[in-house]
């Protein structure tokens, strides 16, 4: 199970595995996750998956952010093309609803979108459709092993 991979991944750091939250309800969508956690939707750190020529990548963005195709193409030199639901477990290592930047397949690069920097803490998923973890931005940087910060989203007014 994908959440077990994330638990195992977090065991590298004492106390991190215990911080994973599991809910009796779904947290698969931004709205469901915000309700389960008890926070605003924009503080959910959604993980979006795309295919580039060199392979799959993940972009972690704020819950209210939307991919800006022009910015995405300017950054990655390719049109934004999301992975299909059935490709996620094989290419990334997690199923839809639980995609996160932790315990992913070797070679999948993680990018953090600037939209996250507005918050002291955010809530990414932990590999299942009913899990999350609260992390500070520096913690997210550490545990996601991100490649770099990017600006590929727009935030609604």
Protein traits:
10 strands, globular, two-stranded antiparallel ribbon, YbaK/aa-tRNA-synt-asso_dom_sf, six-stranded mixed sheet
Describe this structure in words.
By secondary structure, this protein is α/β, with parallel strands linked by helices. Helix content is 24%, strand content 25%. The chain contains 5 helices and 10 strands, in the order H-E-H-E-E-E-H-H-E-E-E-E-H-E-E. It has helices spanning 2-10, 30-37, 69-76, 88-91, 137-144; strands spanning 21-22, 44-52, 55-62, 66-67, 109-113, 121-124, 131-132, 135-136, 148-150, 153-154. The strands form 3 sheets. A 6-stranded mixed β-sheet has the order 8-6-2-3-5-9. A two-stranded antiparallel ribbon has the order 1-7. The longest helix has 9 residues, at 2-10. The radius of gyration is 14 Å and the shape is globular. It starts with a helix and ends with a strand. The model has no long low-confidence stretch (mean pLDDT 97). Residues 28-141 form the YbaK/aminoacyl-tRNA synthetase-associated domain. This is YbaK/EbsC family protein. Pfam families: tRNA_edit. It comes from Faecalicatena fissicatena.
Rg over alpha carbons: 14 Å
Could you spell the SSE succession in H and E letters?
HEHEEEHHEEEEHEE
Strand content: 15-25%
The strand count comes to 10
Q: What is the global morphology?
A: globular
Number of helices: 5
Cα-to-Cα separation, first versus last residue: 38 Å
Weakly predicted, low-confidence segments: none
Structural class: alpha/beta
Give the biggest sheet: 6 strands, mixed
What is the helix content?
10-25%
How are the strands of the biggest sheet laid out side by side? 8-6-2-3-5-9
Pfam families: tRNA_edit
InterPro entries: YbaK/aa-tRNA-synt-asso_dom_sf, YbaK/aa-tRNA-synth-assoc-dom
Protein name: YbaK/EbsC family protein
Domain YbaK/aminoacyl-tRNA synthetase-associated: 28-141
């Amino acid at each position: 199970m994908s959440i077990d991979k994330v638990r195992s991944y977090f065991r590298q750091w004492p106390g991190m595995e215990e911080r994973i939250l599991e809910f009796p309800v779904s947290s698969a969508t931004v709205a469901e996750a915000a309700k389960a956690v008890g926070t605003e939707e924009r503080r959910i750190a959604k993980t979006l998956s795309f295919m580039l020529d060199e392979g799959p990548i993940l972009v972690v963005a704020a819950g209210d952010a939307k991919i800006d195709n022009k910015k995405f193409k300017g950054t990655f030199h390719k049109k934004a093309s999301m992975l299909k639901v059935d490709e996620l477990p094989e290419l990334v290592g997690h199923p839809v609803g639980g995609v996160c930047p932790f315990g992913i397949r070797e070679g999948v690069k993680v990018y953090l979108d600037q939209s996250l920097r507005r918050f002291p803490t955010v809530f990414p998923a932990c590999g299942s459709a009913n899990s999350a973890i609260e992390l500070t931005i520096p913690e997210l940087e550490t545990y996601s092993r991100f490649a770099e910060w990017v600006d590929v989203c727009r935030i609604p007014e």
